[in-house]
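During the reporting period the student researcher (J.K.) took over the structure-prediction task from the postdoctoral fellow and processed the backlog of single-chain submissions. One of the processed entries is reproduced below for the supervisory committee.
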Amino acid sequence: MAPTSATRKGALNARQLRFIDEYLIDMNATQAAIRAGYSKKTAAEQGYDLLRHPQIAPAIAAKRQELSHKAGITVEAVMNELRRIAFSDVRALYHDNGRLKMPHEMDDAAAAALASVETVEVSGADAPPLNVKKVRLWDKKGALETLLKHLGAAGPAQPDPAAATAPIVTALDALSERLAKLAS
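J.K. obtained the following structure tokens:
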């Protein structure tokens, strides 16, 4: 069984190290905590706490950078691919006569923006069958958010929930004191 506490002061334990690897699979702290062996009941809190651990956060960043380097993924390469998707022009998918180009006829930017092509044969009673092609492009905004999230460049950090609720707790404490004074 994996130890649940650090073996020496400051060292990460086996579950914490596993959490780091699991988190990098899907960037989901709750699911990573469950897969790392933490209780399902407390996985959300554990995941939240683990991401804020003073040694886990930098370990995730270092491992993320190592994986990106091994895969040959750089911010520049991602930005180039995102640029091709974000600034793609649907007209580049078609010939001047309106017929859909074959994939080998498309330029790189048009091919990068193309998610799928579906061909449906529609037949009528008196008419010959007609092939209808449905073209779907990649979700530009979704691709941008996903890739930037995996690179750790997703934008400003989320606000700390404890800091957001601090004024409420302070107000409730003050209200409790007033009620206690009124009751006595």
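The committee noted the following: The chain has a mean pLDDT of 83.
J.K. will present the remaining backlog at the next meeting.
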